[in-house]
């Protein structure tokens, strides 16, 4: 994927088992937690391209959130702030080779950022 591509969509849920049954039954999504990410089942659409996760709902995470792949989270956070956005969550490590962060645009829409690769 390239800088600016939507790469992942998280859906906030309160009951992982129920949400897994709902989305796999409704859309035919393959849903399973990858090793090392227990409690965070990942979904993949039948096109084998679209995907994301079923993440625990929390106070700051109540609506689905899209993640955009970027070349540099650090640069993107700086640019977002310069353009009137705010940083909701600073850069955090996913694996040794991948990171994420969350920004809000001027209207308060939360957008996730992703840099790196989770490929082994």
Automatic annotation (TrEMBL):
Organism domain of life: Bacteria
Span of domain VOC: 5-116
Matches recorded under CDD domains: SgaA_N_like
Pfam families for the chain: Glyoxalase_6 (PF18029)
PANTHER family hit by this protein: GB|AAF24581.1, GLYOXALASE-RELATED
Stated name of the protein: VOC domain-containing protein
Organism of derivation: Luteimicrobium subarcticum
């Amino acid at each position: 994927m390239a800088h600016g591509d939507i790469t992942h969509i998280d859906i906030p849920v309160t009951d992982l088992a129920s949400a897994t049954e709902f989305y796999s039954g409704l859309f035919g999504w393959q849903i399973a937690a990858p090793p090392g990410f227990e409690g965070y089942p990942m979904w993949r659409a039948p096109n084998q391209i679209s995907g994301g996760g079923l993440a625990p709902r929390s106070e700051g995470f109540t609506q689905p959130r899209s993640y955009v792949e970027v070349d540099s989270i650090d640069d993107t956070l700086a640019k977002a702030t310069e353009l009137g956005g705010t940083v909701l969550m600073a850069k955090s490590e996913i694996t040794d080779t991948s990171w994420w962060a969350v920004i809000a645009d001027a209207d308060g829409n939360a957008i996730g950022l992703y840099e790196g690769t989770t490929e082994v």
